[in-house]
Design a protein that fits this description.
Layout: E1 8-9, E2 12-21, E3 24-31, E4 36-42, H1 45-48, H2 51-64, E5 75-81, E6 84-90, E7 94-96, H3 97-101, H4 108-126, E8 140-143, E9 148-150, H5 155-159, H6 190-193, H7 200-216, H8 226-235, H9 249-258, H10 270-286, H11 302-315, E10 336-339, E11 346-352, E12 358-364, E13 371-376, E14 382-388, E15 390-395, E16 401-406, E17 417-422, E18 430-441, E19 448-454, E20 457-461, E21 467-471, E22 474-479, E23 485-490, E24 497-502, E25 507-509, E26 516-522, E27 528-534, E28 539-544, E29 549-554, E30 559-564, E31 570-585, E32 588-591, E33 598-603, E34 609-614, E35 622-627, E36 634-637, E37 639-644, E38 650-655, E39 661-665, E40 672-674, E41 680-688, E42 691-697, E43 703-709, E44 715-718, E45 727-730, E46 736-741, E47 744-750, E48 756-758, E49 767-771, E50 778-782, E51 788-794, E52 799-806, E53 814-822, E54 828-845
Antiparallel strand pairs: 1-2, 2-3, 3-4, 4-6, 5-6, 7-8, 8-9, 10-54, 11-12, 12-13, 13-14, 15-16, 16-17, 17-18, 18-19, 19-20, 20-21, 22-23, 23-24, 24-25, 26-27, 27-28, 28-29, 30-31, 31-32, 31-54, 33-34, 34-35, 35-36, 37-38, 38-39, 39-40, 41-42, 42-43, 43-44, 45-46, 46-47, 47-48, 49-50, 50-51, ...
Length: 848
């Protein structure tokens, strides 16, 4: 039926035509029942002429309508009107990816951003069992705020039969010269070309074709005819991506891995694709962060990881704080810095009172749990509010204090809890919301905006209970001076990006990505974003809504912006921290740090020396060996150490300057490189003095486990583990290996069979990191916490025996204990931790 302005399809009134394509016409419309603006897609007449296909359309469209993800267009309704099938979707403003590509290739940074969002949308759909089957730039929409949305999910299956004997051409018809290949055919997978049944891996191939085009401006497979293009998909590899495009080898490998002809050789899940794209983004923004690969991983959930980024930005490096200022605009008086706190401890969050004369902050001192304090802004007086396990979130214009009550003992501003209100006159906190991550008061002093963590995603509610925005990893919120919008920071990818969300949920992504950020707020006038951000967190910058950035001030150490008042008064935290190392023996903790950036890797087999890595600020990272009697350390070489051989003669590690596996002698001799067969080394453990197990990535970015003979170089590839192990430790007989991953229970790998089995009685929170003396029991730690506990675990009986509680000799300023190496008898433990050396709140007046 012809569709005209003013006509109706069921309850939907048509306003105007938006566009058309091979999947039908799209119209702007309105749901007359609730007044909501919608997009109405009228499907081709071929659907209505086939009863079976029409029924399948309704069933599959309703299945696609169950998807709820920020990178998928939401389907509201499906139906038919006078024999015309239609589908009702959310109405979004922007252009298709095809429109973006008309002027040529996209920048690598933009490509990675868009590709990560597309992959995230694919992963969400695939996990619900829904495959797109017709992914192409025309079906990818980019909103005005750079949010990517995938269109027509599941509709390709509906408009084209998936039976193997289907002879209908799966191409998009266009008015163009005969023989020109356009539309779907250029993005088909080989199995689609052959008419075979397809699964989610077909979408991954199509994604690879789109990724190639975004990077090069050209399609990977293009011929003079449809037949030529299909032949190229089946038999030819795409042209090499030119190095002049700025495409890194890692990104090129992702493209090639997606475009494998054999489905089993491609990425096996879109979730893995998201992970690798994020790694490429992080490495690109970090400027060649090969040293990061060797750092000990943290067992953090998503919200904790966000907080860890903030902490690292706030306390990384620098000398003792001294008051100085460079870069402020010329004024009659220089800025004035007033210290508010002087005690060393773990600072949480801090906020001004409405008049700026009082500062409320959360902190943990010594062994005490975190609590909320009030201090005069001139530093003359401080007192506790008497609220244990709490942190301050916001202060209203009427003087009410919003605090977060933690259900667990925490020493850092991480995790969720109960949001409660403390009245100006004191008294017990009044709970108002559960499972809150962050919160902020509106200017009216009554309503609150909160961030929650729901299913691993950040959800913004403003006011409480009214969801207006969702993202994978968000920090904030900060409400504008007029109360009409909320400022957030998207920290899922590096660089982080500021986002402004209005009350209706419309998000404006500010084009000012920041490599680092540590605290942010609206400026005094509310027309800029004030943040400790830029190339490092020792700079306070101001960003306007167009993305223009100016430097407000430089500081000699890293700072964190906590709050900004309308009169221009700023509350910042200056902190200096170090990676420390300690020893626990005979029930006593002793400091064992070397250069102040120490991370333990292993103990020698005789338990008399510790292998560790240092990340000094002005020289290359390196592997060190130091006797536990306190003798000086010996630098073994420029490598990130993985393990030490059973005879103590060799150390295996990754070269600091690239993906090479090195063997470093602990005594006389020279280092040498081991041929890994193209595997990028990530972890390793010695099986015998002459053989080791290597974990790493091949050229296709697939996780691999390889047994290597260190003398002959002979290699035996084991079955891929199916997950990314961050820790390996061989048993005394070298026949079994402990594997640990962040999202699953520890497992044991059999070197002979290659079989991996989870350890019954342990879960993902247990770090099984060492074999006990009997070769059967395990040492298991609760790491990433403080204090950290070490247990002896018997897999046969699934019982535990407490061996040690690691607290450090001086617990003040310690965040968490993250890595441990122990002797098999469980009597000596060497561990790494992060300590705040100084952490001071300053009130700054006159900074513009």
């Amino acid at each position: 039926m012809p569709i005209e302005s003013g006509s109706r399809l069921g309850p939907y009134e048509i306003a105007s035509r938006i566009g058309a394509g091979g999947m039908g016409e799209v119209f702007r419309g309105k749901d007359t029942r609730i007044g909501r603006a919608v997009a109405v897609k009228v499907l081709p007449e071929s659907l209505s002429s086939n009863a079976d296909r029409l029924q399948r359309f309704e069933v599959e469209s309703r299945a696609a309508g169950t998807l709820n993800h920020p990178n998928l267009v939401t389907i509201y309704d499906v139906g038919t009107h006078e024999g015309t099938p239609y589908i009702v979707m959310e109405l979004i403003d922007g252009v298709t990816l095809r429109d973006k590509l008309r002027d040529g290739r996209l920048s690598p940074r933009t490509t990675i951003d868009y590709a990560s969002q597309i992959a995230a949308g694919l992963a969400a759909a695939h996990e619900k069992g829904i495959v797109h089957r017709d992914l192409k730039p025309e079906n990818i929409f980019v909103t005005d705020d750079d949010r990517v949305k995938i269109l027509d999910f599941g509709l390709a299956k509906l408009t084209h039969s998936v039976d193997s004997n289907d002879t209908e051409a799966r191409t998009e018809a266009r008015n163009t010269d005969p023989g020109t290949v356009l539309g779907t055919v250029g993005y088909m997978s080989p199995e689609q070309v052959r008419g075979q049944n397809v699964d989610y891996r077909s979408d991954i191939f199509s994604f690879g074709a789109i990724l190639y085009e975004m990077l090069t401006g050209k399609r990977p497979f293009a011929g003079d005819s449809t037949a030529d293009t299909m032949s190229a998909i089946l038999r030819e590899d795409p042209a090499e991506i030119s190095e002049t495009t700025g495409v890194t080898p890692a990104l090129d490998r992702i493209v090639r891995h997606c475009l494998e002809k054999n489905p089993s050789a491609r990425f096996q899940s879109a979730r893995d694709l998201v992970f690798d794209l994020q790694n490429v983004s992080n490495l690109s923004s970090a400027g060649g962060a090969s040293t990061i690969a060797g750092r000990a991983p943290h067992r953090f959930s998503t919200p904790i990881l966000i907080g860890a980024i903030l902490i690292a930005a706030a306390i990384g490096g620098g000398a003792t704080w001294f008051i100085t200022h460079r870069g402020a605009r010329s004024t009659n008086e220089p800025p004035r810095f007033t210290p508010v706190t002087l005690r060393i401890g773990n600072m949480m969050s801090a906020r001004f009172s409405p008049d700026g004369n009082t500062v409320y902050y959360g902190a943990a001192y010594g062994t005490a749990a975190s609590e909320t304090f009030a201090a005069r802004s001139d530093g003359s007086e401080t007192h506790s509010l008497g609220i244990p396990n709490s942190d301050v979130m916001a202060v209203s214009s009427t003087g009410e204090v919003a605090v977060l009550l933690k259900k667990t003992f925490l020493r850092v501003p991480l995790g969720t809890g109960t949001l409660a209100i403390v009245s100006p006159g004191g008294g017990a906190p009044r709970p108002v919301a559960e499972s809150v991550f962050r919160a902020a008061f509106a200017p009216d002093g009554k309503s609150l905006a909160v961030l929650r963590i729901v299913g691993g995603h950040s959800v913004l509610e403003y006011p409480i209970g009214h969801k207006i925005y969702e993202g994978n990893a968000l920090e904030g919120p900060r409400i504008s001076r007029d109360g009409e919008s909320v400022l957030l920071f998207d920290v899922e990818r590096s660089p982080g990006t500021p986002i402004i969300v209005d009350r209706n949920g419309h998000a404006e992504r500010i084009n000012a990505p920041q490599r680092s950020f540590a605290g942010f707020n609206w400026s005094a006038k509310g027309d800029e974003i004030l943040c400790a951000c830029g190339d490092d967190a020792s700079t306070i910058s101001a960003i306007d809504r167009k993305g223009h950035t100016r430097v407000v001030s430089h500081f000699p150490v890293n700072v964190l912006v906590h709050d900004v008042l309308p009169n221009g008064r700023i509350l910042v935290e200056a902190a200096v921290g170090r990676n420390m190392m300690g020893i626990f023996h005979d029930g006593k903790d002793t400091d064992f740090s070397w250069l102040g950036t120490s991370t333990v890797a292993a103990l020698t087999p005789d338990g008399k020396q510790v292998l560790f890595v240092e990340f000094p600020e002005y020289s290359p990272a390196g592997a060190f060996l130091r006797p536990l009697d306190g003798s000086p350390a010996v630098r073994l070489g420029d490598a990130l150490p993985f393990a030490i051989s059973p005879d103590g003669a060799l150390v295996a590690g990754r070269a600091v300057d690239g993906p090479r596996l090195l063997l470093l002698p602990t005594g006389a001799g020279l280092q040498r490189e081991i041929n890994t067969g193209g595997i990028d080394p990530v972890r390793a453990t010695f099986l015998t003095p002459k053989s080791l197990l290597l974990s790493g990535f091949d050229a296709k970015q697939q996780q691999q486990l390889v047994v290597i003979d260190v003398d002959s170089g002979a290699r035996r590839v084991l079955p891929p583990p199916g997950f990314r192990p961050y820790f390996l430790r061989a048993s005394p007989d070298g026949k079994r290996v402990l594997l640990a991953a962040t999202t699953r229970a520890p497992s044991i790998l059999s070197i002979d069979t290659g079989k991996i089995e989870p350890i019954a009685g342990l879960d993902a929170a247990d770090a099984a990191y060492e074999w006990a003396s009997d070769g059967k029991s395990l040492l298991v730690g609760k790491l990433g916490e403080f204090p950290a506990t070490i247990d002896l675990f018997d897999p046969a009986t699934r019982t535990r025996q407490r061996l040690a509680t690691l607290t450090t000799g001086d617990p003040n300023g310690v965040f968490s204990i993250d890595t441990v190496a122990s002797t098999p008898d469980g009597k000596t433990h060497v561990y790494s931790y992060l300590r705040v050396l100084t952490s001071t709140l300053y009130v700054i007046d006159g900074l513009r």
